[in-house]
# Entry
Amino acid sequence: MSIIEWIAAITGVISVVLTARVHLWAWPIGIVNVLLYFWIFWNERLYSDALLQVYFLAMSIYGWWHWLRRGSQTDARQDALPVQWLPTRRMFGMLLLTLLAALGWGAIMARWTDADFPILDAIIAMFSVLAQFWMARKLLQAWPVWIAVDVLAVGVYSAKGMVPTTILYALFLLLAIGGWWQWRARYRLAQG
# Structure
């Protein structure tokens, strides 16, 4: 599985770099990444993360379509959809609902499966769902959520001995910090 995990990790890095640069090719490369990681996570008994890949597949298709329809279909860099700010009240409401969903799902996984780290895996999965949805909508707050997810994921994947994936999520953490800065600059520029 190691070669597949390395290929998945490499496609993941490429996808996030392209996303931070607001490049349309982030989405199809991300699709390859999620298909590989579904198989990897399922075999590692991280079922929430495996199921998360199904969601990522759907959101990658949606994000690709959403970014594409907002600009010229021949333009590789889709700037027609601006980076946006989610109002604070909605943001905190969505964060609270996500936390409650994560705890509920984690309890279900702990009770009825042989999942490893069921609560932490559920938190990673549910907050990834939120961050990916916000990313597809080009909401600036997606990046801090990704930063938190990446910190937690590094710990879980390291404990599982998943070296390429641990390295990937450490890189994701750095890329998320860079993505936050890049998107924040775009947002500020658009606000004048």
Remarks:
- The first helix runs from residue 2 to 20.
- Residues 72-78 have pLDDT under 50 and may be disordered.
- The chain has one domain: 2-191.
